[in-house]
Amino acid sequence: MDNEANNEVKPAHFIRKVIADDVAAGTHGGKVLTRFPPEPNGYLHIGHAKSICLNFSMAEEFGGACNLRFDDTNPEKEEDEYIESIKADVEWLGFQWQEPVHFASDYFDQLHAWAIHLIEQGKAYVCHLSADEAREYRGTLTEPGKNSPHRERSVEENLQLFEQMKDGTLAEGECVLRAKIDMAAPNINLRDPIIYRIRHVEHHQTGDKWKIYPTYDFTHGQSDAIEGITHSICTLEFEDHRPLYDWFIENLPVPSTPRQYEFARLNINYTVTSKRKLKQLVDEGHVSGWNDPRMPTISGLRRRGYTPVALRQFCEMIGVTRSESVVDVGMLEYAIRDDLDKNAPRAMCVLDPLKLVITNYEEGREESLSAPGHPNRDDLPERELPFGREVYIDRADFREEANKKYKRLVLGKEVRLRNAYVVRADEVVKDEAGNITEVHCSYDADTLGKNPADGRKVKGVIHWVAVHNCCDVQVRLYDRLFSVENPEADKDKSFVDFINPDSLKVLEHCKAEVSLGRAAIEQGYQFEREGYFCLDSDSSDEQLIFNRTIGLRDSWAKQEQQGQ
Ligand code: ATP
Ligand code: MG
């Protein structure tokens, strides 16, 4: 992380306070061990980044460590690809988990032994109610549940049945193992929750060893306890599960006593943050893949040109609270713009090329001009700018006629080519259809790095690249993936109905300055006067592709102001 961010005073959010108090009081032996527990059923998104930043930075700050644990209790959904992508994303964000990587499935033997322990203590039983019956017996928020007719089975019978569940001699769905807590508890999670189900499926890590699988609730807290996690930080939807989390910790001979703390999940407007929905976007081909630069996934943001510094900065900015809110995507955009403004080398790229011929510049002559790598970063190397008789400028930077507000090139008027000379437009060349194909100019040779000698004022500055020495590149312009703030709000429509049809625009044959021919994948640049761009991983020696990360200014805010 850069030094500047390190020196900032960190906001005193409640989790930081809880941990600081625990460390000061010597709770958990004064140690801090957190964990990030993704389910390997998709790629991580910006919401996960918030959780990663929180868990890893709390550990870092208090001299502790953070575990990476794959929550792989659901045997069908896990895939290697997801596991690898999750590890890559955490590392890319700049965090290092404590080795080794853990899997909840590492603890299946221990969890099974603890299930038997509960049965032996008379605190768990095998229940044969069907799913429908179980729902009926569970009661509602206002009415207590009823005891299952199987609740008073003997320890021996329960042990025998549980063994049969494990052996695979009972069919899927035939029965479940439930904790015996309290069917009248106001918190429904305590009404004899299921702790084991029969599933005759192979598991990614354990193969065909198990025919029964523990539920998330029976796994999570105990995994925390086995690893010695001190602060188990999760999102608010687990708040109602905390009494159950604590019940298992209290009723099992676990080696440590972790505590669970909840915070509000990150929601951002103009996007969706649910792995299931993101997977749908991928599976239905609305985007090119999980790392499509329009996706709010960490890998998509990365490919788009977001940096770890910007994402971490964003996560600090939004803070950690217990109240649900929707963060404006503008904040995320602010974070990347701020980072790239400070750190991205500058370059010129003409997106819609129009040829300018400098008629009083000797034919065949070539010059090598130079430009700063960054206006206030001397450590970034100067760029070499080839200059010659013909240059490209952007079509939008020339008009045959214009009023005074237009500070670019106008027929008969002057403009400065950035980091080069002042030119005057003398003549336009058009094709049969009346389209401008060339602009003929003359240059003032005495204006390199200085104003015209006779005191003429030239206000406009435009970017350009030399025709004889530039790179032909493809540029991909991205806009928000959804055209409405909350694509999930309409109950009668699917979120995919709100995909912004203009979220990707591909420009071919843009002309980039030669320094961009050496760009590295993901390295961000400011294309002067255009925005921030980075080299896309689809690029090859034959075809360079640049993604627009973000514009120079917030064009959406501007549109809203103008009421458009
Ligand atoms: P999704 O709904 O996208 O599938 P999830 O909660 O099921 O998310 P997990 O893989 O179980 O995904 O999440 C791993 C960790 O990341 C959990 O601790 C979870 O609370 C946290 N997390 C997930 N989404 C968010 C979010 N939007 N904001 C903050 N933390 C999140
Ligand atoms: Mg989950």
Describe this structure in words.
There is one protein chain. With 564 residues, this protein is α/β, with parallel strands linked by helices. It has four domains: 3-104 and 219-326, HUPs (Rossmann fold, 3-Layer(aba) Sandwich); 107-214, Alpha-Beta Complex (Glutamyl-tRNA Synthetase, domain 3); 346-468, Beta Barrel (Ribosomal Protein L25, Chain P), CATH 2.40.240; 472-561, Ribosomal Protein L25, Chain P (Beta Barrel), CATH 2.40.240.10. It is built from 14 helices and 29 strands. It has a seven-stranded mixed beta sheet with strand order 12-27-28-29-25-26-13, covered by helices on one side. It has a seven-stranded mixed beta sheet with strand order 23-20-21-22-14-17-24, with no helix packed on it. The chain has a four-stranded antiparallel beta sheet with strand order 4-5-6-7. Helix 8 (216-227) crosses helix 9 and helix 12 (308-318) crosses helix 13. It is elongated. The model is unreliable at 1-6 and 559-564 (pLDDT under 50). Bound molecules: adenosine-5'-triphosphate and magnesium ion (MG). Adenosine-5'-triphosphate (ATP) is lined by residues 37-39, 47-48, 50-51, 71, 234-235, 265-266, 273-275.
